[in-house]
Amino acid sequence: KSISDVLPKIDDIKKIISEKKTKIDSIEKDITELNHLKKELSVAEANLIHKIDQNNRLNDEIKRMESQVEQLKKELENKKLEDFENLKSQIDKKESEIEEADSSYSKNIRLISSLEANIKNCNDTIKKMQSLEVCPVCEQKVTESHRHSINERENKKYNELTEQIKNYRDEEEKLKNIKLNLKKEIDQMMKEQSHLNVLKMKFDNLSEKTNSRDDKIKLKESVKKEVGILNAKKQELNHKIPKYADVEEKYKIFRKEL
């Protein structure tokens, strides 16, 4: 055969090869797109699993928090914290009253000691007058009438002092009882204050858990939307991928033909 006879066939072969290469390039692009879609689908499925798991965990957490919130609400039903500051003010007032009673009690003790010292002086004076013969001031003989006058005066003073001591002793006993009662009242108030402190903590806990629950409900709504978006994405990818179902097989065939 002449060259002129062979050349057209070579041109035909070149053309066929060129067409097949073009086809292969097209198929390779399809394969690249298919791999890209598969990767997207894999990522979407992984994200979807993660979001569904997160949504389930949030459901459990919200359910648990709602149970805790309801329990706290029952415990705090008809409870008020307005009494907290009022009780603190009452305790301060009672403590001030105790300080005042302590001060009065100490003053009474000092007055009684002073009066007892005066009674001792009275007794000493009466004893001295019984044995005194000459007055140390005027150096005159002490007469019975003078001795009687002094005794009378000191006895009167003694009786007055004794009466005052009795009154102060009575006042001292009253102050003891006042202090005892005030301390009992303060102890009771302190118990109530301790109870209110626990109550306040529970109110704070209720507020914290309510806010946390509400935050998780908002997050759950966001996750729910993301799950919807990922499901739509997955459906879209599952719809696109079958279009490239035989592309890899076609690629193998065309490669062999080359």
Question: What's a concise summary of this model?
Answer:
By secondary structure, this protein is mostly helical. The protein has helices at 3-75, 82-131, 144-240, 247-257. It is rod-shaped.
Q: Helical segment tally?
A: 4
Alpha-carbon distance between the two ends: 26 Å
| Beta-strand residue fraction | under 5%
Query: What is the percent of helical residues?
Result: over 70%
The major sheet is characterized as:
none
The average pLDDT score comes to 82
| Rg estimate, integer Å | 54 Å
**Low-confidence runs:** none
Structural class: mainly alpha
Along the chain, the helix and strand elements come as: HHHH
How would you describe the shape?
A: rod-shaped
Topology, number of strands = 0
List the helices and strands and how they pair.
Elements: H1 3-75, H2 82-131, H3 144-240, H4 247-257
Helix pairs in contact: 1-3, 1-4, 2-3
